Amino acid sequence: MKVYLDDERRTPDGWVRVYWPQEAIALLRTGQVSEISLDHDLGDDARGTGYDVVLWIEEQVMTAGFRPPAMRVHSANAPAREKMQAGIRTIEAYAGRAGAE
């Protein structure tokens, strides 16, 4: 399944829409997510941001052997987008090393 985390944009065809980080994480826990696209600003920072999903994936990859899906960021918030992309690069580098062991 492809998961699209966003509070405002139209969901692309073939993607499952979620509005909050915990919804995305619940789907990631199923092991059925092949791709995830993340927005950062979701309208209520107290409920989390797309970066929270990146942090969860990173923790699971590092500590639990989680195999991350393909990840992308579609946020218009440029500083947050760069922070999220840096986290994704770290995840991909670690997951690549772990897979080669």
UniProtKB/TrEMBL annotation:
Q: Record's superkingdom?
A: Bacteria
Q: Which residues form the Cyclic-phosphate processing Receiver domain?
A: 1-88
Matching InterPro entries: cREC_REC
This chain's protein is named Cyclic-phosphate processing Receiver domain-containing protein
Organism listed in the record = Massilia violaceinigra
